[in-house]
Fold each of these.
Amino acid sequence: MKNKGLVIALAVIGVIALVITAVMAIGVFWRRGWFGGGCCQGYGRRNNSSGFGRGMMWGGGNRGFWPGSVSNSHTLSFEEVESAVNEYIEDYDNDEELHIKEIMVFDNHAYVMVEEEETGIGAFEVLVDPDSMNVIPEMGPNMMWNLKYSHMRGGMMGSGYNSSTQDMPISGEGAIEIANDYLSSNKSDLSAEGHPDPFYGYYTIHTTKDGDVVGMLSVNGYDGEVFLHTWHGDFIEMTEHEDDNHSG
């Protein structure tokens, strides 16, 4: 009986040890950016840690790529980005007419804002890999906070969604104020400036340093949480496709 009890005790200890090892391994992989972890540093309006820096690994498309790493490929041209994203939009299963609103080229990828033709509201955000030309949904707010186009939040590709950005209690001006308060509290040398682009559930705003655009952040339109886009590399150039019907 004593031997049987000892065997059971050792078996239980072994199972506990395996569980602890697995949890520790998952924690290490998450911090290193596996499973999409490590991409969200600087999240939270009341987060007092700086958390600034580039994001980690993120898989997507036919081949995973690292939006936070500098590509060895050429710098993407606006024409290449437009071609890739327009093809992506054409294949996108959605009832709304969509078009490219803004392209920002960084030294590791290109960022593109896609908006709805009729409303002028941002539909979703994507990244383009310069090596493979794969187009993937941007991580962060685009997946977590997008109430109309993200499956993570129950969005059904725009089908049957009846809300609008007017339902967000935080205005665009309020979002900029919250963003700058967040940057200031984190002792950042960045500022949130320019027109806040509204999406279904949040705003995305350019960040500047010494008056020059360097990246962007997003502000949740309901609870004011701030999410700094840390996966972009060094900013190179951008272009906006103005829509006269929705400007201003």
Note: Residues 98 and 116 are 5 Å apart (CA to CA).
Amino acid sequence: MARCTAPRYGHRTASGRAACPACGGSYSGYRGYSNYDYNSYSSRSNYSSGSSGGGRSSGSSRSVKPRWSRAGSSVFYTSSEVQTLTPIRETFESRVTVPDLRDIFLCHAWDDRQGSAKELYDLLVSKGVSVWFSEKDVSLGQPLMRAIDKGLANSRIGLVLVTPAFLLRLPKEGIADKELSALLHRNQLVPIVHNTTYEALREVSPLLGSRSGLDTAEESMSDIAAKLAELVAFEPSCENP
């Protein structure tokens, strides 16, 4: 019997799952690394196929539309991405009526504040997303930790931009660690892996590395921003039944 490669190589990306001789792209052999019950989400019809054939796509084929996708949207997902984002969407929906909240809290390494973190921030803002970003929301002389606590409390969901710089700072239990602890405590975290791998992340933080997310090795930062913008868009009349 073929052995699952998840414990060694991980299944966080579609290519990783597809390369496993036991799972062949399926989540069935990977439940030990998941924090969500994917079967329960699948049974609730959270997505529909956008492919011309009308059938559900494979985990590596971007032809799926989640229930929160607007009619006419050009953004397509893999089924595993929909499974990953569905609980985050539900957390967002549970907080959407709370006034004066930002859509997204962006957690990042200090070193990335003028690079990849700023790139992601700019892309999200250009798509109409309200983002708490330390470079914009912490005033000169303002206590940083207090500002971060306030930002976390006043955002609906959180992103963690995982980069080589982030991996270096995470074990030092600095600000990034404080942010992560708060985000992991609630079901509102989306890891975005950039210029590194989930395998490297698991070496530093097995808990965070066990979470599904998005990866710029598989699609551009712009495409990821489009999915995140759709994830936090909400108009009750546009929600699918």
Note: Strands lie at 47-49, 64-66, 102-107, 131-132, 155-162, 189-193, 214-215.
Amino acid sequence: MRPGIVRFLTHLSVIVGIFVAIIILSQWCIQLFTRHGQSLSVPDFLGKSVAQATISANEHSLYLEVIDSLYLPNQPRGSVLRQIPQAGSKVKKNRRILVIINSVVPRKANAPSLVGFSLRQAKAELNSQNFVLGTLYYEEDFATNTVLEQLYQNAPLLPGTPIDAHSVIDLILGVDPEHNIAYVPHVIGLPLEDAKEAITDHYLNVGVVRYDATVTTAADTLSAIVVRQDPISSDTFVHHMGSLVSITLSLR
């Protein structure tokens, strides 16, 4: 083989080798900087404080960002209510995790004026203004189930007083001793809020609320239904207005 051809083939081999090396190096660099094929599983931040969630995110090489806040009275203040992406999602390192938290400072609202309302009217007014009906107290009065006074934290509540939204407001109602009659409704099979509504609709109070061993998380409490009540429902056995009805809830 002539020397010129040998040199040509040698140079060509070198060029091909360099070209292949560049391709391999480029692919390696791309994988290095994009972490191709590598992903992290997003932790569950729900229910954690922002500080706890931030620490957990940093431990997983993720970045937490609070984008909004709501106020739910039954959830810890400052806790994570929602996250994007959801727990278990696969993401790249240093990915931003967006969270919505429960507001630390609840919104204020002016107390309603319920004196003179019937119990049904008072419940509708409380619901419309995002307040919660608390305990029903009965005092002797000719105007049965008419609101005589409204209470907040065991003290008289003047209409227009600024209090936390979703606050519990108790009511003192009148009752004619000759008509102090209430019947226990059937609440087995109902979720908690529906059971409470039925009990107060019958001029009674919710007593002890229990959950059995099947209920282990906050999400479970929303899905649970009443499986026992005390006293049992009756259309004949008479109770006094304001009596207690205790319930037990389960996922079964």
Note: The mean pLDDT is 88.
